[in-house]
Amino acid sequence: MTPGLSQAERALLERAHRQRYQLARAPRFQPAPATTSSRTMAGPAAEKSSRRRLLTLAKPPFAVRVLNNMSYGATPASIAELNALGSSDAARLTAWVDRQLNPSAIDDSAVATRLANAGYTTLGKTLAQQWSEHVRADVEWAVRMRPGWEVQREAMVRAVFSKRQLFEVTTAFWHDHFNVMLGDYDTCPVYGHYDRDVIRANAFGNFRKMLEAVARSTAMQIYLDNRSNRRSGPNENFARELLELHTFGAENYLGFMDPFEVPPCPEDRNYPIGYTDIDVYETAAAFTGWTINNNHWEFTHASKDDGAFYYHADWHDSGPKFVLGTFIYPERPALQDGRDILDRIASHPRVAKFICRKLARRFIADEPPQALVDSAAAVFRTNWQHPEQIKRTLRHILLSDEAQHGWGRKTRRPFEAVAASLRALGCEWTYTFDENRSNDLNWRMGFTGHQPYDWPAPNGYPDVATAWSGASTFGMTWKLLNWLTETNNVAGDGKLLPILDLTRAGVPASQWTANRLVEFWCRRILGYMPKSQRVSALRAFLAQNGDPATYVIEDTNAWAQGDLKRHYNQERIRSMVSLILMSPEFLSR
Questions:
Q1: How many beta carbons lie within 10 A of that of residue 399, not counting itself?
Q2: Which domain of life is it from (predicted)?
Q3: How far out from the chain centre does Cα 497 lie?
């Protein structure tokens, strides 16, 4: 029921909407059919699907589980740091989460210095600078696209080296949630502004504030076409994705139906249970006139070509609207229609559940427990106007029993696997530009299907294991991980990663048996010893025809085809490390 309307006014409003949208024969609401579980599937679709099997893995130590789920991968240093934070697992987790949720108190200047020294030149440019120097200036293609490319490569540098690990993981989550394709010719030049001033600025803040920042951002205005949304030619792209992908989720979509017949939401009867196509149309009307300063021929104001957000009143549909069960009066102040809808959305109970399910999916499991989703949604909605709403919600999820005890219910996506590998192997090499190894990595990342921020559809990269379990994805990821262990460092002598140096520092030469080396590297990379079958296979590979318990492998790389225990020993150690990186233990979290 729309508040503040008499029965007569409501009747007029309903009649006007039915005439406008031809609702005389609109279908009535029907509850969605119950989802059929995968175990009861039948028919041709089921016959073509491989049956999922549960793989039981050894459970890692507490610190390893926490760091693999809440950062880009455990390292010896981060494990020691977490273990020093308290006298119990719960105390250590609480201290670590609270520290990570306050990123401004964590000195991350070393990463900023690393990026500057590596030739990143556009990350600090303002939107106006990006617009004038990379959009309007007559520059070659590589210069135009440089801001977005830097953000893309910066993501890997920060994932590997930043001390603000939880912030970096959460930033990637919001990039997927509010996806803008970086590789687009028009969005790439202003992507630095989107990453820094929209996503990063709000990653731990308030969801309602983030919604408006996204709606006003130049990159999103271009990507979802709201820059051309006007009353004389409405464009509903942004409005539809705002409701379907950014807030409600497709599970709360009711199709084309009479909005006055939508049932109330069980959690709060002041809100409708979901959104309809007409809500999309009305929302699109509310955001007409929200555009950018792009020197459009109809603009007459000064400074009309700086790429910033601009509200063009002449394009706005100022008529009455009925959205999500509430009436919006006509002829209101600038931006008010859209802002009222964002308020309505941000306070909706089903939006809270949708966002919290995605957060729990990122940090807990592909199918997170409903009880955790519900309790997190209560925190999210109670704090919908609080400046640290997201931070409070994350804290609730990350300190839950599920976060403390769960493991192995997520699969690392390719980018995450590469970042975790570089962290575990003590990487000091910086991913940059105009350097052969960096360009090689960039090229190979493309084959995995997980280049940061480059998913072409508005829904962002999927965050469930089934989406990344194809033969091509696994094959290209394994190939990339193996390449990391074998490739040379063009900036100096030796390999890109210090595998042999770490081996020499961690195991005395007199103890280089297959058993000892496998144990060292399993504990270095995984943080624990995997199941016995995996260990036996690794030992047999490294030992070849030598005794894994007693034969000492020499620190040489000589050719000895007639005696495989002496054949390319250093190559074999690197390959053994590569096999650990490809293992289910490493690729699970």
A1: 14
A2: Bacteria
A3: 26
3-state secondary structure 466-482: HHHCCHHHHHHHHHHHH
Q: What is the pTM of this model?
A: 0.92
Phi (first) and psi of residue 19, to 5 degrees: -70, -40
pLDDT, tens digit (0-9, with 9 covering 90-100), for 474-498? 999 999 999 999 998 876 667 899 9
Rounded distance, CA 118 to CA 429, Å?
10
pLDDT confidence of residue 28: 43
In sign, the C-alpha dihedral spanning 412, 470, 53, 536 is: negative
Task: Calculate the average pLDDT of the chain.
Answer: 92
**What DSSP assignment string belongs to 130-191?**
HIIIIIIS---HHHHHHHHHHHHHHHHHHHHH-S-HHHHHHHHHHHHHT---TTSTTTGGGH
Which one, of 401, 74, 136, lies nearest residue 294 by Cα? 136
Distance CA 451, CA 415 (A): 7
- Cα separation, 487 vs 481, in Å, equals 10
Q: Is the pLDDT of residue 10 over 90?
A: no
In this prediction, residue 139 carries a pLDDT of 96
Query: Helix, strand, or coil here: 321?
Result: strand
Note the pLDDT tens digit of each residue in 91-124.
999 999 999 999 999 999 999 999 999 999 999 9
Which residue's structure tokens are 């202003």?
Answer: 190
Q: In this structure, how many other beta carbons lie within 10 angstroms of the beta carbon of residue 547?
A: 12
Residue 139: Cβ-neighbour burial (10 angstroms; 0-12, 13-18, 19+): middle
Separation CA 503–CA 489 (nearest Å): 18
At 66, the amino acid letter reads: V
Asked if 213 contacts 201 with a C-beta cutoff of 8 angstroms, the reply is yes
- Written as six digits, the tokens of 579 are 């096999």
User: Is the pLDDT confidence value at 470 over 80?
Assistant: yes
Please report the pLDDT score of residue 58 as a whole number.
Answer: 82
Alpha carbon distance 400, 69 (integer Å): 13
* CA separation, residue 120 to residues 259, 277, 367 (Å): 50, 44, 39
pLDDT on residue 1: 38
pLDDT tens digit sequence for 416-453: 999 999 999 999 999 999 899 999 999 999 999 999 99
- Strand, helix or coil for residue 455: coil
Structure tokens at 250: 């497709």
